[in-house]
Amino acid sequence: MKAIVTTAAGGPEVLKLQDLPDPVLNRETDILVRVKAAGVNPVDTKMRANPKAYTAPLPPVLGCDAAGVVEAVGGAVTAFKPGDEVFYCQPPHHDRGGSYAQRMLVDHRLVAKKPKRMSFTEAAALPLVLITAWEVLHDRVEVKPWHRVLVHAGAGGVGHVAIQLARSAGAEVCTTVGSADKAAFARSFGASHTIDYKQQNFVSAVLDWTGGKGVDIAFDTVGGKTLADTFAAVCFYGNVITLIQPGPEVDWGVPRMRNQRLSFEIMLTPVFHELTEAMAHQGEILRRGADMFAAGELRVHVDRTLPLEQAAEAHGLLADAKTRGKLVLTID
Predict the structure, then answer these.
(1) Is residue 148's pLDDT more than 90?
(2) Which of 92, 118, 174, 332 has the most other CB atoms within 10 Å of its CB?
(3) Cα(266)–Cα(164) distance, integer angstroms
(4) What is the DSSP pairing of strand 261-264 with strand 234-242?
(5) Architecture of the domain spanning 2-126+268-330
(6) Which pLDDT score is estimated for 332?
């Protein structure tokens, strides 16, 4: 099979198209999928640059989320059969290669059937960002209709889905963006207030929006100084959830005096640590997301598609931070 192989730790240039043996179905709980499209995520670029930073050994083929057609199933799999169109998120780990390949072995607990009205491209774009946003807003903080929510980087892959999930729960959403174009994009997905962080101090803007109180929930996808400043934009007893490990720039006195709660979200954890109940929960999130998509209650924006052999170019585009929504690799 054709696959994109990470030949060394480094920049996008280390990604090379190679021929690899087809994976062999040898676990009762597995599905063999012929991949039609693979999502490209910032975590892929981090794995490429520094694979030793991850708790599970990374195989040379990267890529977490994908969509495709089932070719074979293990003996313990009853919910899927050959020919089913499916989508899923399974990060590369140990002996399991990722989705930048023509075929992939996937644990059936992580898989959902693709709605008919959802293209393979859309299906490949959705899993990682949906699971991340869902676990943040529903599992960590149980977003409610009376909440005001701040989503950082609302024009990004996770951000534009998080806006929709918060709005579907009835909450009001403000978001930070880096341009007028991205502000319009975020509003089209339900943000009621946008803040151009290049032109405004987002903390002051959030406090103005909330009458000085601060938001109930802040979802940080950026880290660094953005996370450090975010606590001042959150109300007393509010919640901050981040995807990024805090650095030395964080003044913990602000969240401590405000009795705020800080939570972390890494959606890779269930697979890396073989937490089977959590893996099954992620599959259920995809099934619920599929129902929302089929009902017209959820959209995913694919900014651009590229063929598999242009994976290095896709990683370069992510580094430029000019895309909106997701990038997807198409696979013959």
Answers:
(1) yes
(2) 92
(3) 20
(4) parallel
(5) Alpha-Beta Complex (3.90)
(6) 86
